[in-house]
Amino acid sequence: MSYSLLENHIPGRKITFEGAEYLWLGGTNYLDIGAHPTFQNALKEGIEQYSQNFGSSRRNNLQFSIWEDFERALATHFQVDAAALCSSGLAAAQIAIQFAQQKGLNLNLAPQAHPALWRHPHKPFTGSYSEWISSHQKDQILASDGIGTPWINTFDFSFAKAIDPSNYLIVDESHRVGIQEINLPCSGHLLQTASLSKAFGLPAGVILGSEKDIEEIKKDSFWVGSSPPNPAFCHAGLQSMEVYKEQSQQSKSLADRFAANLQGIEVPVTYEAGYPAFCSKAPGLFEHLKAAGILVNHFAYPDISAPPVCRAILPTCLSFEDIDTITDAIKSYV
Question: Are 29 and 63 members of one domain?
Fold first, then answer.
């Protein structure tokens, strides 16, 4: 079944549905950052200092230093040269794609590429990921997700070490930033884009890359004409950089417990070691987990006419005992 919940607050560890209480494994709030006192206090400070929003351009005569301060902090955090903040992850991906297309390169979309990376009339490659890698040529923009979503799949980016220096590799890291290491050795131009709304809890996006590419992007009319992110949330993010690291470690601990509990056992779910999520195509698993007091995502995405996707995350508000409950329920599925 596909279901709908109407809430007036962001759920934490549990949620109420149809009169019963469930462990909540839905959404993409990986680090549960919005409930952390440091983040909450920093956001209050940000709103007091900057108000709730500032509609502007990054080329406006009036600028806030928080944007560049946060960009430098993100570049340091992700061990890249530079960063360009955007209003959303989709905006970040589209700005990066359009910037690279101006170099006269053709777009080559990987299998499972998120629609944020699409540009009409290009569509994702229909073969396997390894076939896509073999298909790439010189003078191309190679665009891929960092990890499969909603179907979880780890991609091998070792090919990036040998791509032509003129090529661009654009990777949507929205479901890895703040959760997994995203360092990718690349012989071409590497741009990594991400939504910061998932792990980082911010209504913003970011483009990560070399100093030269980011400088060029910041001169591009598409970036100049786009809205910058809310400065109050950027303040909250900047003040929470250590908290992100702490929550990321907790996330990994939960993911490791999940994988250890299922090691060597044939189970009806797909997951990757160290990654706090799982998915399944097993018929009836959603209802089985629901009967065990566990509620997961179950809706069609990104093709709304497709069968519902059964997908769950393991947010940092869970305990190790919760992980044991989840894996016991998975193992008991017949």
Answer: no
How many residues are recorded in the chain? 334
d(CA 257, CA 124): 34
Do 105 and 140 touch, CB atoms closer than 8 A? yes
- Asked if the bond preceding 228 is cis, omega within 30° of 0, the reply is no
> Strand 189-195 and strand 168-172: pairing?
parallel
Task: Please tell me the predicted confidence (pLDDT) of residue 300.
Answer: 85
Rounded distance between C-alpha atoms, residue 125 and residue 334, angstroms: 35
Phi, psi of 252 (to 5 degrees): -65, -40
Q: Is the peptide bond before 37 cis (omega within 30 degrees of 0)?
A: no
Q: Helix 65-77 and helix 241-262: axis angle, to 10°? A: 40
Final residue of a structural domain among 239, 265, 281: 239
Token pair 């351009």 in the structure block, residue:
57
Give the pLDDT confidence score for residue 219 in this predicted structure.
95
Range of the domain at 100: 38-239
Domain boundary among 239, 255, 281: 239
Query: Which ranges of the chain have pLDDT less than 70?
Result: 1
157 closest CA partner among 149, 167, 165, 147: 147
Report the CATH number at residue 272.
Answer: 3.90.1150.10
Residues 304 and 324 in one domain: yes
Tokens 């070490």 sit on residue:
161
Q: Token digits for 23?
A: 């462990």
Residue 90 and residue 27 in one domain: no
- Nearest in space to 153 (alpha carbons), one of 66, 245, 273, 266: 273
Q: What is the distance between the alpha carbons of residues 38 and 65, in angstroms, rounded to a whole number?
A: 21
pLDDT at residue 320 in the model: 98
